[in-house]
Amino acid sequence: MKQPIKGFSKLSKEGKIEWLVNEHFENPEEARELLKEYWHSNEKRQQLHDDFIENTMTNYFLPFGVAPNFLINNQLYTLPMTIEESSVVAAASKAAGFWLKRGGFKTEIISTTKVGHVHFNYAGSFETLSTLFEDWKPKFYEETEELTANMRARGGGILSIALVNKTDVLENYYQIEARFETCDSMGANFINSCLEQFAQVMRADIELRTDLSAEDRDLQVVMCILSNYTPECVVRAEVSCKVEELNDDKDVSPEEFASKFQRAVRIAEVEPYRATTHNKGIMNGIDAVVIATGNDFRAIEAASHTYASRNGQYSSLTHCKVENGVFTFWIEIPLALGTVGGLTKLHPMVKLAHEMLGDPNSETLMGIVAASGLAQNFAALRALVTTGIQKGHMKMHLFNILNQLEATPEERDAIVKHFTDKVPHHNLVVSKFCELRGIPVPKSGVNKDK
Ligand code: HMG
């Protein structure tokens, strides 16, 4: 039975690796070699990566691809995309190329406000609390002046502070809800620092209120934290063209395509099973650019899915209409992104991604990321309502299957050629590979994946 370890974090990197490989691997030499094989050859770069997180052993590579031809608000972009899934970059590129000839993507920032809360318990009367809050409010601003000075100089800062009574959902539960403008930063540290200062003001003040009854002084701050749900930090991206300009696919008329496409979006609007997959496809594009540009994709994912449920049922993040012969397809999504702070100036590949995009500010990046999600969804739906998803996806996935099979370069060439006009389903590729090698097809096949 494995034993827990105390003080692991205090071991040197070598010490951690030794413990890990000896504790968890049948062949420690092989595991050690692999971990070290993925170290960066440049020590300074490796140190940088070691310091991003804790207990770093090695690096974990994800491909960094690019999708060219994104015309967004009449500017041409090449999007950086960091993702492991085949066909996503190709799909984004194909959709970008399609819309390039039809006016491109138009984006609009709806708002950029972020929110944070001091969550607290209060046993006294709401009336007393409201009076206390009126006293605290100017102090919240005064006592965060130093913290907010730079943000205010950039045009941001605290936008509003309100007391929220949540006792209808939880006994004695109240919030100080503050709204912030954090300009080009994602703002988590700024917001959390302000909130913690508010809590200090509350605690200090309540201590001094000896004039109040014990109940009216009974206040406990539970926590101070920003919310990753940002329904007031929202961007819209849109594509549109005349229906007759819609499809260059000869098998389906533009009218039939528009109708099936619109229906597919409608299904995602009303059916959570489909909405989840539909939005997953959108997040293929969103996450890839968010990761490449050094932003927090967990926060973006969490906000998107809450937003997708804001009307009481999980629904599509994209929408489509056909009016007066014009097809319009759009996304509205909360994207609290930063172009300063965090990894943006630290990770060399993130810096490169930002430079590739012309060092956008956060609002421009919001538009770019939204366009990437919309493009991805367009490509997936286009495939789904015409050829089916497997044809294109498996074409892109073929190399992963060939890598699993450890095909030689000659075998790869022969198999790629063979599947030029056929869908390379996993079992068909395995059969072809076995035929080329003159070996029997294994009963269990090779590990199947998507
Ligand atoms: P195609 O028409 O066979 O490709 O499409 P093509 O060879 O004719 O090339 C057309 C363009 O596609 C190229 O233009 C590229 O822009 C791009 P060009 O560069 O030649 O001027 N393209 C590529 N880009 C980079 N590398 C490549 C490459 N090949 C084509 N190797 C394609 C093939 C896969 C693009 C198309 O079938 C497609 O868009 N399919 C959709 C794929 C998709 O959505 N994948 C996401 C993963 S599946 C999923 O997880 C989501 C899903 O469940 C979501 C949902 O249900 O809504 C589907």
TrEMBL record:
The keyword NAD applies. It catalyses: (R)-mevalonate + 2 NAD(+) + CoA = (3S)-3-hydroxy-3-methylglutaryl-CoA + 2 NADH + 2 H(+). The keyword NAD applies. Keywords: NAD, Oxidoreductase. Pathway: Metabolic intermediate metabolism; (R)-mevalonate degradation; (S)-3-hydroxy-3-methylglutaryl-CoA from (R)-mevalonate: step 1/1. Pfam families: HMG-CoA_red (PF00368). It comes from the Bacteria. InterPro entries: HMG_CoA_Rdtase, HMG_CoA_Rdtase_bac-typ, HMG_CoA_Rdtase_cat_sf, HMG_CoA_Rdtase_NAD(P)-bd_sf, HMG_CoA_Rdtase_sub-bd_dom_sf. Belongs to the HMG-CoA reductase family. PANTHER family: 3-HYDROXY-3-METHYLGLUTARYL-COENZYME A REDUCTASE. This is 3-hydroxy-3-methylglutaryl coenzyme A reductase. It comes from Phaeocystidibacter marisrubri.
